[in-house]
Amino acid sequence: MQMNSLGLAELSSIAAGMQAADIMLKTSQVELIISRTICSGKYMVMVGGEVAEVQSSIDAVIKNLEYAVIDTFVIPHVHPDIFPALAGHSQVENLESLGILEAFSVASLIEGADAAVKAANVKLIEIRLAMALGGKAFCTLTGEVAAVTSAVEAGASIIAEKGLLVNKVVIPQPRNELFNEMI
After folding, report:
1. CATH superfamily, domain at 82-182
2. Model's pTM, two decimal places?
3. Do the beta carbons of residue 121 and residue 147 sit within 8 Å?
4. 24 with 30: CB under 8 angstroms?
């Protein structure tokens, strides 16, 4: 199966989240990437596949479980840095500058992270999703200050459109102690 698109449904109910995963897998030819509880009592389901199939799976969840849907997305042609950042496997030697995006929802944060890495020449370090974060999510990225600033602005605008932006920060030349705490 070709994974050129990523879709996510974030739900307010664990039971509805498990039901959403089943609906997505039964209605469309998608691959299940993540299906799990997140803080604070929410559930997320992430699938990959062809754009039309991923869109169909998200549409089915919205149609059947609208009462429990917090946020959704479909990202066609998802940036390849998203997957290692989600897994925590991005390799970064040092930080020229550090960009941070923080959101109230997992879905909006991933959309913002994808927009950020597509907007400028930056390296996505990590995407942390709602575990021990009170349901929030954040991502970190690095590169030259101007590129990180452009990337953070692009990502923040996507998150802010949904009214879910908590904060955005660019730190030029962060101290090594900060970098050591991140890895």
Report:
1. BMC (bacterial microcompartment) domain (3.30.70.1710)
2. 0.85
3. yes
4. yes
